[in-house]
Write a structure and sequence with these properties.
349 residues; alpha/beta; Quinone Oxidoreductase, Chain A, domain 1; 11 helices; 18 strands; binds zinc ion
Length: 349
């Protein structure tokens, strides 16, 4: 049996294991992808650290190969994998829907009741090969290098969040400058936002906001900074038209809500560690705001939009890639992310 290098979660504790494993056998309706580049997501860091979320989510799946952001080449196709050919360059939509639940049958596969997530519930992309349902393979433009194409997932999350309402001519607060937040800054600027206000507590990350064209940058960790006052000043006392939350921090949520104008739109992608207190009455009801929860990417509306921003160069994803390592050096990448000294870390087998 052919062997491949792969990265495993083998024990219910912090860490990972790099080892050889058989190349996956594809089923009908699957394609085999030779991984050319894979990248580390926040989710992978949770899995590596085996934090409370990971303990709850992946205990039953161990041992398995993790990782889900990928770009590679199709080397084998199963029966009935229409539209995908050997040699295609592809990335993966990581939500694998059941296809038959209420949500799947009403155009909302991204919130499928029985969803499986690549590299969380199934063997993932931190490997030389990965098997993927053909419907989840997204064909990339061959002009885009694999090490850039692998970072499309965070771009997709940003596209879904940003375009869940109007953007052109709007003032927009964006909380949380990880890769997704930074992409959101670029998208808002490209889509004609009036003013983009980027907020984080980390100077390194805020540097990317600047790079991607944010008009106002607020570092909430700087002593003496009053985030709410700075946002109100930047919006002439009105508050922002749109509030995008990527930080997953209660303080960010409440600052964003407090500085959203009456009638504004809040779109929340951040995942919060536990329930927290929110002023629903004054912050939401009387202000008549619209609040949307954002999960994953719309399949595949979001991907078409993301492709357009990527291929026209309006969003320069390559700027987010701070490190490129060999797959077996993955632990180095995890440690850089733990120290918050990197944005997108790409691994090449
Ligand atoms: Zn991801
Ligand atoms: Zn479903």
């Amino acid at each position: 049996m052919e062997k491949m290098l792969s990265v495993w979660k083998t024990a219910p504790k912090a860490g990972l294991e790099v080892k050889e494993a058989p190349v996956p056998k594809i089923k009908d309706n699957e394609v085999l992808i030779k991984v050319k580049a894979t990248s580390i997501c926040g989710t992978d860091l949770h899995i590596y650290e085996y934090d409370p979320w990971a303990q709850k989510r992946i205990a039953k799946n161990i041992p398995y190969i993790f990782g889900h952001e990928v770009a590679g080449e199709v080397v084998e196709v199963g029966k009935g994998t229409g539209g995908i050919s050997i040699g295609d360059h592809v990335s993966a939509e990581t939500h694998i829907p059941c296809g038959y639940c209420y949500q799947c049958r009403t155009g909302n596969e991204h919130i499928c009741q029985n969803v499986k997530i690549l590299g969380v519930d199934t063997n993932g992309t931190f490997a030389q090969y990965v098997a993927l349902p053909y419907k989840n393979a997204w064909i990339n433009d061959k002009k885009i290098p694999h090490w850039i194409a692998t970072a499309q997932e965070p771009l997709g999350n940003a596209v879904h969040t940003v375009f869940s309402g109007e953007v052109a001519g709007k003032t927009i607060t964006i909380f949380g400058m990880g890769p997704i937040g930074a992409c959101a800054v670029a998208l808002c600027k490209a889509a004609g936002a009036d003013k983009v206000i980027a907020i984080d507590r980390d100077e390194f990350r805020l540097g990317f906001a600047k790079e991607f064209g944010a008009d106002v940058i607020i570092n909430g960790a700087t002593p003496g900074t009053d985030t709410r006052k700075e946002i109100m000043d930047a919006t002439n006392g009105l508050g922002a038209d749109v509030f995008l939350e990527f930080a997953g921090a209660p303080a960010a949520f409440n600052d964003g809500l407090a500085t959203l104008r009456a009638g504004g739109r809040a779109s929340i992608l951040g995942v919060f560690p536990k329930p927290f207190e929110v002023d629903v009455t004054d912050g939401m009801v009387f202000k008549g705001i619209t609040l949307t929860g954002i999960n994953g990417r719309k399949m595949y509306d979001t991907w078409y939009k993301a492709r357009s921003f990527l291929s026209t160069g309006k969003v320069k994803l390559e700027k987010l890639v701070t490190h490129r390592f060999k797959l077996f050096e993955i632990e180095k990448g995890m440690q850089i992310l733990q120290k918050k000294e990197g944005m997108k870390i790409v691994l090449e087998p």
